[in-house]
């Protein structure tokens, strides 16, 4: 018998930084095509899929390149970076035969339609992939928080954080070789240990909405599908 997906509706947070692949900046073609192939594989299972993509491959408000800038201005630039990534992702999905709609939290009507919750729900019910661009639309936040927020708004069963590391560790594994990976961890423990894999606002929002998060590697082949099938992969953050 064909195995079924563990979820009906999910919010996938894709790392903007991972989009660079081995490049120093921007969008690596082979990398975005591989991400889209992963998305196509899970979409074929019949799940309803919404995506938030980060902007770290182009600009972050707290990046060295923003030093001395007004923080809110820099953050708006970061949000615009996520619009570019969202458009690139939706177009790559179009080329792969997946119908996607980009909805922006910041009005740029000539470029992309605005985020309107009932419309987003309609697209999901129609089987379209919805890409939420421009984060929350507010400075001083991140796309992780946007993923938590939109995930809660659309009634997703889980937020899937696809990033460059394969889970939540006791410390940043890129800085501490003694860091150990958790297979599960509670929101309260992640917050009290100040684990930086996601920002505290995202953790707190998901905790309060009882919305679990799965952190896993976007670089590891097949990991997204294993997560969707409910198999042992990455780290589950739970209430
Ligand atoms: N305790 C931890 N466990 C795992 N990763 C951690 C931890 N603390 C810090 N990190 C770092 O967090 C990074 C992932 O989060 P980050 O928000 O920087 O990236 P992203 O979400 O993948 O990118 P973007 O913001 O561009 O979408 C990892 O690459 C890792 O270096
Ligand atoms: O709600 C939001 C989301 C994002 N930003 C700014 O954009 C960049 C890029 O997002 P990442 O999550 O870091 O990939 C972020 O650093 C912020 O500067 C925002 O202000 N509000």
UniProtKB/TrEMBL annotation:
Its EC number is 2.7.4.22. Keywords: ATP-binding, Cytoplasm, Kinase, Nucleotide-binding, Pyrimidine biosynthesis, Transferase. It is found in: Cytoplasm. Residues 8-217 form the Aspartate/glutamate/uridylate kinase domain. Signal peptide: none annotated. Catalyzes the reversible phosphorylation of UMP to UDP. This is Uridylate kinase. It comes from Solimicrobium silvestre.
């Amino acid at each position: 018998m064909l195995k079924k997906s563990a979820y009906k509706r999910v919010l996938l947070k894709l790392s903007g930084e991972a989009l660079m692949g081995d490049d120093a900046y921007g969008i690596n073609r082979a990398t975005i095509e591989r991400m889209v192939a992963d998305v196509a594989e899970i979409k074929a299972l019949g799940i309803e899929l919404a995506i938030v993509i980060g902007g770290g491959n182009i600009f972050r408000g707290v990046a060295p390149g923003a030093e001395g800038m007004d923080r809110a201005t820099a953050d708006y630039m970061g949000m615009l970076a996520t619009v570019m990534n969202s458009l690139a992702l939706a177009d790559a999905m179009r080329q792969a035969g997946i119908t996607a709609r980009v909805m922006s939290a910041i009005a740029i009507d000539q470029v992309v339609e605005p985020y309107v919750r009932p419309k987003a729900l309609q697209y999901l019910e129609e089987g379209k992939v919805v890409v939420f661009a421009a984060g929350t639309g507010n400075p001083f936040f991140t796309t992780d928080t946007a993923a938590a927020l939109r995930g809660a708004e659309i009634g997703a069963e889980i937020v899937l954080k696809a990033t460059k590391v394969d889970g939540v560790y006791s410390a940043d594994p890129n800085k501490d070789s003694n860091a150990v990976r958790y297979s599960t961890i509670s929101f309260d423990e992640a917050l009290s240990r100040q684990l930086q894999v996601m920002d505290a606002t995202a953790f707190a929002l998901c905790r309060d909405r009882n919305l679990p998060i799965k952190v896993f590697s976007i670089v590891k082949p097949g990991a997204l599908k294993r997560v969707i099938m409910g198999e042992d992969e990455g780290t589950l953050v739970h209430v």
